[in-house]
Amino acid sequence: MNDTPTASDTVRLLAEQQGLGKALKLFPDGVKAAAERGLRPLGEFPKGTTSLNSPAPIFDPAQFERAK
Amino acid sequence: MTDLAYLGVAEGAALIRAKRLSPVEWTRALLDRIAAIDADYNAFLVVTAERALAQAKTAEAEIAKGRWRGPMHGVPYAAKDIFDIEGMATTCHSKIRMNHRAAADAFVVKKLRDAGAVLLGKVALHEFATGGPAFDLPWPPARNPWNRDLHPGGSSSGSGSALAAGMTPAALGTDTGGSVRNPATCCGIVGMKPTYGAISLAGVFPLTYSLDHVGPMTRTVEYNAILFHAIAGHDPHDPTSTRRDTPDCLTELKSGLKGPRIGVVEHFYTEDAAADLDQVRAIGEAAGVLQRLGAHVKAIRLSPLSLWTDCNRTIHQAESYAIHEKDVQERPEDFAALTRNRLLPGAFVSSAKYIKAQQLRAALCREFAEAMRDLDAVITLSSLLLPCRIDDPAAIAKTYDQQCRLVFNVTGTPAISVPTGFTASGIPLAMQIAGRAFGEPMVYRIAQGYCEATGFAGKRPPIRLPERAAARV
After folding, report:
1. Confidence check: pLDDT of A54 > 90
2. Predicted pLDDT at B464
C-alpha cells in the first residue's frame, strides 16, 4: 500500500486549507490550474542580485506622521 | 459643419470658450450617438444622460458669464465603472458589486467635476479590472469598433471602445498590468499610464495596490496630456499620492524630436517571446521615423520579459487575492470564469514568494533606472500579438500575458501606447513610449512628435450608423 499523496490530493488539501472547498467542488480544474500557477517558483533574479541583497520594501513609521 | 462625434478635447474646449459651440449641443450629440450605436459596441454600462445635460447647461451658463474653468470645461468624458461616483454603483462590471452605492466621488472624478467636465456615463471593463471579455456576467463585454469580432483589449475595454467609436472625446481608465494601454493598442487610440503616485487612486476599486495606476485615454496625444493635467495632483487621502508638482506636459509638447535619446527594447519581441510580424515591422518603422525626426535611437537590453512578467504576476496574484479572498471562498460561482481563473492562483502564492517578488521588483527598478541614465525614453511593443476573437476564451487566456506593458507597472514609470499603423485587414498596431519616473513631459513630447509625423492617431474605424440616426449624429 502506498501512502504517498497524489498531486491531486495535495491540491485538494492546499485548497481546503485556503477555504476553497466550494471552489474545488464547483470548479476542480480551475483550482488545480490555479495551484500550478500560484505554486510555480519565481524566476531567477538578475545577475549579481539575490533576494538577500535586494532590499525589501522598507517600512517607514514616519510616513504616518507626515500623512497627518 | 463640425463633426461632434470625433471632436477632440482641445478643439471642443476652444470652440466652447469662444462660444461657437454649446456644451449642451456637444453633449446631446454624443448622447444621441451612444443611443444610436452602442448596442453594437456595449461600451457603456450606464449612460448618465440627465446628469450630463445638467452639467453641460451649467458649463454653458458659467462660460456665458465669463467664468471659464479651464480646458475641460464643458468637455464630455466617460469613466470606467471602477471609479466611485457619489450615489451610483461602482459595479466593476461584476454581479458581486451590483448593489453597491458610492458615498463620495473618486478624487479624479471630483477633479473633473470641479474642472466643469461633463460625465456621459460609466463604461465597461473586464470584471474587477482583470479576467477578460466575459459572456457570463450581467452585462455583455465591450466590442472593438475596428472589428466587432475582435477583443477590444482590457481591462479598460469600454473606455477604448467608446473613444474609437466616437462616443466620447475622453475617458478614464486604470492600469495594473497594461489595462489602459491594451485597449488603446487594440482600439487605435492613445492611452497613458503615468508615474505611480502622479494620479490619486482614492475612490478607485483596487486590483493590486502596489501596481494600480489611473490613466487618461483619448484619441490624440495632446488631448491626453490635457486630461492628464486635469486629473493629476496631490491627494492627501491617498498615501501613494506624490507631493511633487505635476510636471508641465504641454509647454514643450510640440517642440520636436531633435535631441532625445531613445532606447529600443527589441529583445522583448525578437528574442524573449514570439511576436506578430506586423507589430514588429511597425515598431521598426517607428524607430526609423524617430531617427529621421532627429532622435538618437539605439537598441538596449533589460532583463528578459519573462522575469518582468513573473514579478508583475506574482504581486498581482497575491494582492488581488487578498482583496477578493472572501468572495472567492464563499461565492466563486458569481465571478466570470476568466476572472475566477485569474484570482484563484493568489490562494497558492506563499508569503516568501510574494516578498521575493517585491525584492525582485526593487532590483528590476534599479536596472531600469540604470539603463535610463543615458536615455530620455525607451520604446518597445505594447501587445506582442494582434487582438484575438472576443468569443474565444482559450485564445484570450493564451494571448493575455503576451505583452510588454506590465514592465512599466513594475517600474512605476510612465508609458504611453500610441498607434503605429494598421495591418492589411485594418487592425490597429501600436508601440509604447516609456520614460523616467515623473518624465511624462518627455514621453508626451516624443509621442506627439511621432504621431504628428505619421498621422496614425485619430484615425476612425468604419462605424455604420442606423439610417434614422445618421441624419442626426
Report:
1. no
2. 79
Helix (H, G, I), strand (E, B) or coil at B198: coil
Optimal mutation site among A40, A42, A65, interface B, most CBs of chain B within 10 A: A42
Gap between the Cα atoms of B299 and B96, Å rounded: 46
Secondary structure (3-state) at B79: strand
Average pLDDT over every residue of B433-438 = 97
What pLDDT digit, counting tens, does each position of B268-306 carry? 999 999 999 999 999 999 999 999 999 999 999 999 999
CB within 8 Å of B65: residues ≥ 6 apart = none
Is the pLDDT at A67 greater than 60? The verdict is: no
The active-site residue out of B22, B80, B159, B320 is B80
In whole angstroms, what is the distance from residue A13 CA to residue A7 CA? Answer: 10
Give 3-state DSSP helix, strand, coil % of chain B, rounded to 5.
Answer: 45, 15, 45
Query: Of the listed B22, B94, B161, B179, which one is catalytic?
Result: B179
CATH topology of domain B9-470: Amidase signature (AS) enzymes (3.90.1300)
CB nearest to B303's CB, from A14, A41, A46: A46
Q: Where are the domains of chain B?
A: 9-470
From the list B119, B231, B169, the residue with the least C-alpha distance to B10 is B169
The ipTM of this complex is 0.88
DSSP β-bridge partners for residue B192: B416
